Amino acid sequence: MSVALVPSPSFMREVQARSGQPIGLCYQCKKCSSGCPLGFAMDLLPHEVIRLIQLGARDRVFAANSLWVCTGCKTCQARCPNQIDAGQVMDSLREIALATRPRGRDANVKTFHESFLTTVRFFGRSYDLGMIALYLGRSRAIGEHVGLGLNMVKKGKLKYLPERVRRIGEVRKIFAKARERR
Amino acid sequence: MKKLTFYPGCSLHSTAAEYEESTRAVFEALGYTLEELDDWSCCGASSAHATDHYLSIALPVRNLVLAEKRGVEEVATACAACYNTLRKADHAVRAGDPAAVEASESMVEIMGRKYDGGVRVVSTLELLARPETLAAIKQKAAHPLRGLKVAPYYGCLLTRPPEAVAFEDPEQPVSLDKVLAAAGAEVVRWSWKTECCGASLALSRPEILKELARRIIVAAREAGAQAIATACPMCHANLDYRQSEIPELKDNPVPVYFMTELLGLAFGLKKAPTWIGRHLTESRSAVRSFLPAGKVGTA
Prior knowledge:
The complex is a heterodimer of chains A (182) and B (299).
Chain A: H1 10-19, H2 31-35, H3 46-55, H4 58-63, H5 66-69, H6 75-79, H7 86-97, H8 104-123, H9 128-139, H10 146-154, H11 168-181
Helix pairs in contact in A: 1-7, 8-9, 8-11
Chain B: E1 2-6, H1 17-29, E2 32-36, H2 45-51, H3 53-69, E3 74-77, H4 80-94, H5 98-111, E4 120-123, H6 124-128, H7 131-140, E5 149-153, H8 175-182, E6 186-187, H9 206-222, E7 227-230, H10 233-240, H11 247-250, E8 256-258, H12 259-267, H13 272-276
Parallel strand pairs in B: 1-2, 1-3, 3-4, 5-6, 5-7, 7-8
Helix pairs in contact in B: 1-12, 2-3, 3-4, 3-5, 4-5
């Protein structure tokens, strides 16, 4: 059974406002998807995500892993003939999706970013060991990183103690403000 | 000695300590002293822009305000991610992007002043590729890297978005080619210079990351390279760390060097073996003939 898609502009307006990107200008030249290094791992290619936003197919956009797989490498941005930064669009979609609980492997992407930023909020600088502990504790993905972790310790890549910014209050206030605005 | 205000960033103070050490040593040899921007904080890297637009501007802007407050007009950074984030924030504020202007103005309440757009952020690669510096590199290279075939790898962050960061062509950059050639290396031509290595997925999607790294490293080898050179701690980590987990590369890996490590070898700096000894992929044999005599690194 197929369900007809009834185009609606409200989703596109929302994403355009949040991202500042002229999504309506896309005419599907597919340069973004042709050059996307992550395309092989995406459910929907960048040009498909843009088209579905134009059509207001909100659920299909958020059901796909694309926004969690995009690394923000900006190859699409640099090549778009209409100056649409699809990476920025993916960032905005992710901001919206963060309020929900992503599934499976997509959840690990969210957990990673949260773990990284938690250490920055605490110390003002990122702290790898703390970030790794938080990430592995929450994602339970320790199996795929054990070998690498041991090699990094052996080579002295992981510092035991965090560095802390003196005026850490300023960094904390930046995070508090970000939270207020959400 | 010329003084440079330096923003190291978190990676250079942790996983990429060899990049900071080699950057300082090479710039010193070229007549610069690097002075750290006092009380710098994290630029937010990919995690900030991936999750919160305000954070992605406010975190780098704090550092721009720190510099501006001290009357510093130019801040140099060796980390491609820091360079990208600082430049993007600076560009957005200068261009009058409403969210960026608002984030900058919020700094009045947080640190007593906003960012007025008076700081120029430069990458150390950009400084090394200036004609007068290239001439100095040639002169300093007492042990030119003759015969070493190197693939110059730029990645995303030094080249895109072009409006904010690129100091040269975003699709065909040549600055690193020039720096390596000045040190005597043989620079290979290849088409993967600016491909993404997948840095922000390093922990969360290692299987994707390994595929991206595999493609880049194999392409370098097919182009005839014995080594890859980079100016980004994220690229270095992703290409260097997991080669032993990639079947195609496990038994014949391709070493990945920070550009300043290769310059250090060419300059004959005594510390160079220690730097490359910190890589996870064996990095001594490819440059054995350029190592300072009598010095043995740990790798």
